[in-house]
Specification:
Low-confidence stretches: 85-90
Structural class: mainly alpha
Number of strands: 2
GO biological process, one term: peroxisome organization
Order of helices and strands: HHEEHHHHHHH
Organism: Sakesphorus luctuosus
Keywords: Peroxisome, Peroxisome biogenesis
Oligomer: single chain
Protein name: Peroxisomal membrane protein PEX16
Family: Belongs to the peroxin-16 family.
């Protein structure tokens, strides 16, 4: 990736990290008008950055999160003791004569800070596989797939526009957003030879369609009573589950009021 593309991904990641805090903080200081203003500005900025990545840098299907979190356990550097063992050419493994089991030799045991519990071969294979996945180029998108990804990117803006036109209690914004999400997934489902990360992203988007059961006005009219009844039954009749379901019942109303938790 080029440096400008990395900067766009960084800014996109920052926006996704602070969007909920920005919405809640702005609502606290400037009220509802300020809250909706910051929501529109953040969604507009995210859409512009994603469209630049899609159309200018040909980044393909957009991942979430934009930057893969660093796995610190896999990225730990070698300590001086480990480097001495490696450079001295000592055998790192021992193969049992009868069991043929591969174990780490005592001479090449790494320091406690960088120790792992798998065999060296397993770690090397895992690191090489992860590096290969990270270095895979995005799948080229045709006109249909680019249009589908553009639908997914602009869906938040169209949803906000429909909220401003028809109001928050109307079914039209809910239906418009659902149609755009389903249409985007349907058009992208024709793509073949996707890499592993892209397939995982499409699965994530498909699972997120369940959020429509928790979004107003569907939640207010149909889902709320049934979900709360189910959580209450689990809390009352399944031992130990109440520690999770009772706080969840208290949290759901607050979760419903935060746009970026619900629609972002």
């Amino acid at each position: 990736q080029s440096l400008p593309q990395q900067k766009l991904l960084t800014w996109l990641s920052v926006l996704e990290c602070v969007e909920v805090f920005a919405e809640m903080g702005t609502a606290r200081v400037w009220g509802e008008m300020g809250r909706w203003t910051i929501i529109v500005l953040i969604q507009l900025a995210k859409a512009i950055l994603r469209l630049l990545l899609l159309l200018w840098y040909k980044a393909g299907i957009q991942m979430s999160p934009p930057i893969v979190p660093l796995n610190r356990e896999q990225q730990q550097p070698l300590h001086p003791q480990d480097m001495e063992n490696t450079s001295s050419g000592k055998d790192q493994t021992y193969v049992g004569k009868r069991s043929s089991r591969v174990v780490r030799s005592l001479q090449s045991t790494p320091s406690l800070q960088s120790r792992h519990w798998g065999s060296p071969q397993q770690r090397e294979e895992s690191q090489s596989r992860r590096a290969e996945e990270m270095n895979q180029p995005p799948t080229p998108l045709g006109l249909q797939e680019t249009f589908a990804e553009s639908l997914y990117i602009t869906r938040p803006l169209l949803h906000l526009l429909s909220l401003g036109v028809w109001g928050q209690r109307s079914w039209k914004p809910w239906l418009l957003s659902a149609v755009l999400d389903i249409s985007s997934l349907s058009l992208l489902s024709d793509l073949k030879d996707l890499n592993r990360r892209e397939r995982a992203e499409l699965r994530r988007r498909t699972i997120l369609l369940l959020y429509y059961l928790l979004r107003s006005p569907f939640y207010d009219r149909y889902s709320e009573g049934r979900i709360l009844l189910l959580l209450r039954l689990l809390a009352d009749y399944v031992p130990g589950v109440g520690f999770v379901t009772r706080p969840l019942m208290d949290y759901l109303p607050a979760w419903q009021k935060i746009y970026f938790y619900n629609w972002g």
